Structure formats: structure tokens, C-alpha cells
Amino acid sequence: MRILLYFNQECLESGRKYTYREMFDLSRGFAAGLLKLGLNRRDVVGVTLPNLPEYASILLGVWDAGGICSPINPSYGPGNVPFLHSHRSAITPSLKVRINVFSTDDLKWQLTNSEAKYVVTIPAHLKFLQELKAESLKSLEIIVIGETDEQDFIPFFDLVKTDTKGVRFLTGSEIDTTEEVAMLPYSSGTTGLPKGVMLTHSSICTNIYQCTQPGALIMEKRGIGSSPDPPAERFIALVCNT
Asked: What pLDDT, on the 0 to 100 scale, is given for residue 192?
């Protein structure tokens, strides 16, 4: 990501950083892995992650595979009070991540309503996602970034090693970018249940253009992994700097 490379910074949560080439390879490997798992055109992939550098490769990989990304607030989890989770990443085994936790109802609703076929998460969220899967989301495939002793999930860093030779990735010339949905974030649900907002590839490109114009330079200085931004703000900052 440009912001991390420019200041030679590592992600504050994981200690990892990627070059442009590494990010490209990671995204293509993830796309190939999703296709091998059986992802079909316009299938939804939920993403419930804190600020991690892999976020960009996941978004780009989902689009390369022809899927739709649905970012989920990583605060959604069991209980209703803030707590500290021990997040064991591949680089930092004892990293502490503060998560303001709300009910699993919002997480369950978004995964169910969006008809998500896959969800990408961290070890701290795995157990209750497995409980949701056992309860009602039987076909949900859980992909985890980081190490855990739990079972029944797909390791992200294994999935991205999928061979990309011969894989046919989706290109913009194959679709109507003004109609094809790329992102499916959910509203806060102030006046009812959260509702999915369908963002097309063209609308995202327009937002990126807006954010990279004079007057929007604050997006470049904030970077990724430096603040607990809501998923929508983190997404815009991320793609602007990728």
C-alpha cells in the first residue's frame, strides 16, 4: 500500500507490510483460492477484520474472482461490553486488540441477509462464527487470518498459496461497471434493521477519484492500521492508498 511504503511503516496491529508486487500476488492467490472453493459470480464474501494490511488484498481478490465484498463491523461479537482479546497473529503471538463488542445479532443479520457464502475474520471471532454456522449458517465457509488451535476453518495464508496459472480472473471490460455491485456495506440500522447498500464498481472508482483530489489529502496521512475507523471509512482510506 502506498501510504505504508512511502513512510516505510508496518501495520500497527500485525507488524506486517507488503510491497505492490506482494499485494498483487496475495490478491490473485486469494481470488484463485476462492474460485477453487467454489465461489460463483456475485457471491458475497463477508469481511469482519480490524485494520490489517491483508484487507486490501482481500477486497481486490474478491473482485478478481467476480464476487461482492460485504464489510462487517469487527466490533460485532458476543456480549455487550468492551473487552480485550488476545489476537495471535502469524507475526505477533501475544498482540492485544481492543474490541468494543456488541450483540451477535447484527453480525448474524448481515451474514444472513446478504446471503454470504464466505466470511474472512481473525481468531478472536472464530468461535462465535462457528456457533452461528452450526446454528443457522450451515453453508458458510470461514477463512481466518492468524493462528489458532480451533478446527473447522480455512487458513488465509494457506488459501493465498493457490496456484493462479490458468485461472480466469474477472476484468472490467467484461461487465457493466455502472450496474455490477462490488461492495455491500450495511447501514447502522437507526430506523430499523441494518440495510445493505449496493455500491457499484463505478461508484467506488468515483469515490476514490474524489478522495485523491486536493483537499482530501488527510486520507493519505491516516494510513491503515492507525485508528479504529468504521468499516466504510477504513475501506475508502484503504483503496485510496492501494
From this structure: 79
First-residue to last-residue Cα distance in the chain: 4
For cell 477504513, the residue is 234
Q: Which among 61, 108, 52, 99 has a CA at the least distance from the CA of 80?
A: 99
Of 29-38, 121-130, 193-202, 233-242, the range with the lowest mean pLDDT is 233-242
Please list, residue by residue across 173-184, b when 16 or more beta carbons sit within 10 angstroms of its beta carbon and e when fewer do. Answer: eeeeeeebbbbb
Taking only the tens place, the pLDDT of each residue in 157-179 is 999 999 999 999 999 889 999 99
Are 84 and 109 in contact, with CB atoms under 8 Å apart? no
CATH homologous superfamily of domain 2-215+225-240?
Answer: ANL, N-terminal domain (3.40.50.12780)
* Confidence (pLDDT) at 212: 73
Helices (H), the chain: 2-6, 20-37, 54-64, 104-113, 123-135, 156-159, 201-211, 218-222, 231-240
**136 dihedral zone (left: phi>0; alpha: psi -120 to 50; beta):** alpha
d(CA 169, CA 5): 27
